[in-house]
Amino acid sequence: MVISPFLMIALTVGISYASADSAASSKQIAVISDSATLRQSYLKQHATGVNRKITQPTQAKKAMRENHLAGYLTLSTTTDRVRADYHGNNSLSSGIQAQVQNFLSQYQQAQNYQDAKLTAKQQRLLARTPVFKQHIATKAGTTNLTRTISFWILITMIYIILITYSSITAQEIASEKGTKIMEIIFSSTTATSYFVGKIAGIMLVILTQIGIYLLGGWAGYSIAVNNAALKPLLADNQALINGVIHNLFNINLLFLFLGVVIYTILAAYSGALVAKAEDASKAAQPVVMLSMLAFFAAFPFQNNLDALAVKILSYIPFFSSYFMPMRIINNTANCGEQLISLTILLATIGLFALYVGRQYQRLMLQTDSQNLWQHLLKRLRHQ
Q1: Closest to 362 measured CA to CA, from 181, 178, 226, 233
Q2: Which of 125, 284, 312, 336 could pair with 167 in a Cys bridge, judged by C-beta atoms 3.0 to 4.6 Å apart?
Q3: How much of the chain, in percent, has pLDDT values that exceed 90?
């Protein structure tokens, strides 16, 4: 379970690389010309997307039939004009058409200058072009993208970990329901100590898994930084990467962990409420439903963080682990609001764990036939 995300990523990257490698050749074109100078001039300006090995029309037609080539471009010159003819099953993309047209214009212009016998000064005067520059607020665009990526990474991590360990915890607790081993354990230690120890053990497993994921992410980033193909891409987007890392490795990580803690305690309580060990598969239903409600409730408010519902839910346990990090990422919650939400969450975890610990022995040893929902409603009526 721990290494499954890494295996999935490795499999996805491998398949993507293989498919991209096979598809790359079918998108290439060949450049053919009787003039070696003309062909080399084009290849010098536009090296990407060109199959250099094919130099004859017969080779190009064969490669096209085998779907190893998109088409071929023939370049030719007459006494006063340069010409290009493209042969393919589909038309050239607008980008390649622009490249070809730009090359032909430059080459034709150089030939025109030579035929007109212009001086170097006259050529420079004719080569003048207007100036056009765009001034874009790139920082604002990068900030918005950073927030969006951070939002999806964070809530997806919370949701996956909650769903996984809530189910495991609920089923593990439920499977011990009414067994002799529980009677022996409770005769040796208090139910509260046993419950807290069990939850602590699960938390250590979760922390270990989160640590493995962080180390795996750091290792993947280190490999990418030293990769010649990916290094320029990472350098161009370094501000975006730094922003995402900053949004993840701050108090948001604490909200993530505490969210997992409170959902795990609820999962343990749900597991203890089932009628018998055979109902273990049903034990995680309340936790999964509540987690899904919080997860999907965050979507509509991603771009509406000033809504009153967002502010209220960012202080309510079971929801604050989703909504407060969302506000922190978008800088709509100050330090005081973050500490208040964190204090409420910590207090709720402590009181909830104490309550479940006190009820744990009686719940684990009871053997009546009531189902999970009947037990839950009964407990609520007696509060």
Answers
A1: 178
A2: 284
A3: 7
The structure tokens listed for 151 are 């939002």
Strands 29-33 and 82-88: unpaired
* Cβ–Cβ under 8 Å, residues 249 and 329: no
Give the distance from CA 142 to its chain's centroid.
16
Q: Are 10 and 219 in contact (CB under 8 A)?
A: no
Q: Is residue 5 part of a domain?
A: no
Same domain, 160 and 117: no
98: domain CATH number is 3.40.190
pLDDT digit string (tens) for 312-348?
Answer: 999 999 999 889 988 888 888 899 999 999 999 999 9
* Structure tokens that stand for 150 in this block: 């951070």
- Same domain for 88 and 228, yes or no, is no
Cβ atoms 199, 102 nearer than 8 A: no
- For the record, the structure tokens of 251 come out as 């108090």
Q: Is the dihedral of CA 268, 269, 275, 281 positive or negative?
A: negative
78 and 103 inside one domain: yes
Structure confidence by residue, pLDDT tens digits, 36-63: 888 888 888 887 788 888 889 888 888 8
Q: Cα 237 vs. chain centroid, distance in angstroms?
A: 15
Q: How far apart are CA 293 and CA 155, in angstroms?
A: 12
Q: Which amino acid would we find at residue 12?
A: T
* SS3 state at 99: helix
Element (H, E) at 339: helix 335-365
Please state at what angle helix 138-175 crosses helix 238-248, rounded to 10 degrees: 40
Determine the average pLDDT of the residues in 229-243: 81
The total number of structural domains in the chain stands at 2
What is the residue whose two structure tokens read 């607020």?
A: 137
Domain hosting residue 285, numbered range: 140-381
Question: How many residues are given for the chain?
Answer: 383
Q: Which residues of the chain form beta strands (DSSP E)? A: 29-33, 71-77, 82-88
